[in-house]
Amino acid sequence: MSNTALHAAAEAGDTAAIEKLLADGTPIDARDGSGATALLVATHANQVESAKALIEAGADVNAKDNIEDSPYLYAGARGHLEILKLTLAHGADLKSTNRYGGTALIPASERGHVETVRTLIEAGVDVDHVNKLHWTALLEAIILGDGGERHRQIVDLLVKAGADVNLADGKGVTPLQHARAGGYKAIEAILVAAGAH
């Protein structure tokens, strides 16, 4: 039952219990029924201190659960910036992908996590990675975003990072066409200025 205790301590943010369990020999990357490690459980709950204790003790930031989420990917997708930065400092695999074939940058862009997107771009995540839906981070920010200020900032960050503004989706629809269809004038202006057609 020690795995359960470590997962429970991680979820509760009980770093003292985590440290004691690890000192007693509990395997740090043991899995629960969903395939999650204690670090992934801490990441789900955005328990920064738990995550920090586990990462500093050597937990695998790239260990995936049964649905292909890892602490790094989940922190990026959910905008859990402090945990994301810890995973990046401890060997996060920037090329790893989720069950949709997307990098952490794609869901971060879709969900409007501006600082997370900035952090992932600075870390070197491929801005033009195409997922299984044939969408890039730029396309997801436009198609699944709300056209508001956070998504405008994300489009701007992606464009400044060299995202291909003419990389179309699987049906041949470009980012500019999607922005126009959504009535997203500010995003349209950024794309046009960057040479989108």
TrEMBL record:
Repeat listed as a keyword: yes
Keyword Transcription: no
Xref: InterPro entries: Ankyrin_rpt, Ankyrin_rpt-contain_sf
Pfam families named in the record: Ank_2 (PF12796)
Superkingdom of the source species: Bacteria
Keywords: ANK repeat, Repeat
ANK repeat intervals: 1-33, 34-66, 67-99, 100-132
Record-given protein name: Ankyrin repeat domain-containing protein
Source organism: Aquamicrobium soli
